[in-house]
Amino acid sequence: MTPAERRALLGDDVLAHIDDVVDAAPEPPPEVVERLRRIFTQPLAPPLVAPAA
Predict the structure, then answer these.
(1) Would you give the end-to-end CA distance of the chain in angstroms?
(2) Quick one: which of 49, 29, 32 has its CA closest to 40?
(3) Inter-residue contact 41 to 32 (CB < 8 Å)
(4) How far apart are CA 47 and CA 12, in angstroms?
(5) Spacing of C-alpha 43 from chain mean position
(6) Alpha carbons 4 and 10: distance in angstroms, whole number
């Protein structure tokens, strides 16, 4: 979904509210960031490979 599609679907007021909530959220502790980094860079499942044609 493009930003323009998201804006058309949700509207400016909802997007502004989401931005406010995100800005008010505390930063995650370093150990959480590190755990998430490992999850996203080394997933347990093998990558999906398209079948040969």
Answers:
(1) 29
(2) 32
(3) no
(4) 37
(5) 16
(6) 10
Q: What is the pLDDT of residue 22?
A: 96
In this prediction the pTM is 0.55
The Cα 1–Cα 44 span in angstroms is 27
Query: What is the per-residue pLDDT across 1-53, written as a single tens digit (0 to 9) for each?
Result: 899 999 999 999 999 999 999 999 999 999 999 999 988 888 676 666 776 76
Counting every residue written for the chain, the total comes to 53
- 3-state secondary structure (DSSP) of residue 17: helix
The residue type of 42 is Q
